[in-house]
Amino acid sequence: MSYCGPPVVPGEIWSRWNFEPFLLVGLLVLAGLGYLSLRTSERLQQVSFGAAWTISVVLFVSPLCALTVSFFAARVGHHVALTMVVAPLLALALPTLWGRQLRLMPALVISTAAFWLWHSPDLYAASFAHPALYWLMQFSLLASFTWLWLGLMRGMPTAAGIAALSSAIQMGLLGALLVFAPAALYLPHFSTTLAFGMSPLDDQQLAGLIMWVPANLPLLALVLWRLMDALRQGPETTK
């Protein structure tokens, strides 16, 4: 039994909202802590945190949570939203100085390792059987990519551009492997997609395409921005 419940079937999607009490209390606590921490901060930080919190509510409370049980592509989309949308918004909400003090290379290594490990078939399947592993997966992905985005947006331009390109390459590589895999690899979805007229392999290929293309767009946009920033600042500031 996954944290998000049994697989969803056609006709019941919009009835599968997740109002689990501990989740709702946790979200309210986070909203309160964010308000107290950022009430005197810049407007950009406040808006960024509010947007990150709102998207998190959609990811974990809406029927998308149930869809991630049925579709690997939905789970991958969920992870992409967490790492490529929520994480950079949280990074914008955090103090600028953190991004200049925290080292970028460990963030790149840890975020890459987390992304590949949690999408390895065995560990991925284990997260369906143990809610604690499910939340460890979510928190480790969000924390490691928030750390990465802090460095990408606040660190030195040249290093940030190279790190963003490296992260995009590894994510694209995993996506390509899933697209061209000859067989379905993810046991939890071997039968859950059939009710929607989609085979497990089709679902896996769609997930790979999501990793390969949409997930890379924020990183590639950041590569262009940081490299242009490096050219404007000159060689003295990019060493």
From TrEMBL:
Principal localisation: membrane
Tell me how this protein sits in the membrane: Multi-pass membrane protein
Say which domain of life the source belongs to: Bacteria
Q: Where in the cell is the protein located?
A: Cell membrane
Keywords in alphabetical order? Cell membrane, Membrane, Transmembrane, Transmembrane helix
Which regions span the lipid bilayer? 21-38, 50-73, 79-97, 104-120, 132-150, 162-186, 206-225
Q: Does the keyword Ribonucleoprotein apply?
A: no
Q: Which GO terms describe its cellular component?
A: plasma membrane
| Protein name as catalogued | CAAX protease
**Which organism does this sequence originate in?**
Devosia epidermidihirudinis
Organism placement in taxonomy: Bacteria, Pseudomonadati, Pseudomonadota, Alphaproteobacteria, Hyphomicrobiales
